[in-house]
Structure formats: structure tokens, C-alpha cells
């Protein structure tokens, strides 16, 4: 269960950092990096909607992060968080692919995200497999 504990701690910290990155005062810099060729009309209500939606995604990741940190105290009991993280990363990777293909996301940014998603998925699958063999 040591692998599961380490995974849950890492996920918890990473997802909380994601929450910080989606805070409204931080989002504009992130949007400029993600979508370098897109004009961000900061004063328009549509931008505020985008910013708020992005923050809700951050809140969801932050919630998973808090539960993962809590679950690291007893990883066997909270092992179900591992497939939750895997599913979250798969769905988010699909969204990032959509954003790159149709939303003009910067290719370098997208490739970095793809590596991060793949790393979490592979690590999660290894932890899940090891925990199942341990039972």
C-alpha cells in the first residue's frame, strides 16, 4: 500500500496546485499561454464565463486532491480514488485533445499536458494493479 499512499499524496498536491492555477487572478496568464493566438476580451461577459467555468474545473480537481490527501492516511480504504483519478485524467486528456484540435491550443502546451495525463494514467494503472495483487 506504500505505492498507493505515495500516489494519493502526489495526486493530492498536484490537483491542489491545479486549483491554484485556475484561480481567477491566475487564469489570464494561463489562457495566454494555452491560446497564444486568441484575443482574450477580458472585459466581456463571455470571458468572465470562461474564467468561471475554468475555476469550477479547478474546484473539482481541488476537491479530488483534498480527498486524495485524506485518503493517503489509509490508502487501502480509499483505493477507489485511483480509478477515479485515472478516469479524470482520461476525460481531461480528451478535452485537451479537443481544445488543441478545434480551439487553437498551443501545440507545445498540449504536448506537455498529454505527457502529464499519460504519466498519471500509467502510474495509476500500476498502483491499481499492485494493490489488487497485494489483496
Question: Can you give me a brief rundown of this structure?
Answer:
The protein is an all-alpha fold and 135 residues long. Helices cover 81% and strands 0% of the residues. Helix 1 (2-21) runs antiparallel to helix 3 and helix 1 (2-21) runs antiparallel to helix 5 (107-134).
Q: How would you describe this structure in keywords?
A:
BphX; 135 residues; membrane; 0% strand; single chain; transmembrane helix; transmembrane; 81% helix; mainly alpha
Describe the structure.
With 135 residues, this protein is an all-alpha fold. The protein has one domain. The chain has five helices and no strands. Helix 1 packs antiparallel against helix 3 and helix 1 (2-21) packs antiparallel against helix 5 (107-134). It is elongated, with a radius of gyration of 16 Å. The mean pLDDT is 89.
Please give the structural blueprint:
Elements: H1 2-21, H2 24-34, H3 45-71, H4 81-103, H5 107-134
Biggest sheet record:
none
Order of helices and strands: HHHHH
Mean pLDDT across residues: 89
What proportion of the residues is helical, as a percent range? Answer: over 70%
Q: Please report which band the strand proportion falls in: under 5%, 5-15%, 15-25%, 25-35%, 35-45% or over 45%.
A: under 5%
Regions with little confidence, pLDDT below 50 for 5+ residues: none
* N-end to C-end Cα span: 10 Å
Q: Please give the domain count.
A: 1
Amino acid at each position: 500500500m506504500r505505492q498507493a499512499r505515495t500516489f494519493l499524496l502526489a495526486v493530492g498536491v498536484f490537483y491542489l496546485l491545479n486549483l491554484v492555477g485556475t484561480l481567477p487572478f491566475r487564469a489570464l496568464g494561463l489562457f495566454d499561454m494555452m491560446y497564444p493566438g486568441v484575443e482574450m476580451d477580458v472585459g466581456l461577459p463571455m470571458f468572465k464565463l470562461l474564467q468561471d467555468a475554468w475555476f469550477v474545473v479547478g474546484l473539482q480537481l481541488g476537491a479530488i486532491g483534498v480527498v486524495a490527501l485524506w485518503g493517503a492516511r489509509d490508502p487501502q480504504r480509499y483505493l477507489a480514488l485511483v480509478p477515479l483519478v485515472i478516469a479524470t485524467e482520461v476525460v481531461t486528456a480528451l478535452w485537451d485533445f479537443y481544445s488543441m484540435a478545434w480551439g487553437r491550443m498551443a501545440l507545445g502546451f498540449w504536448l506537455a499536458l498529454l505527457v502529464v495525463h499519460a504519466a498519471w494514467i500509467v502510474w495509476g494503472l500500476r498502483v491499481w494493479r499492485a494493490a489488487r495483487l497485494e489483496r
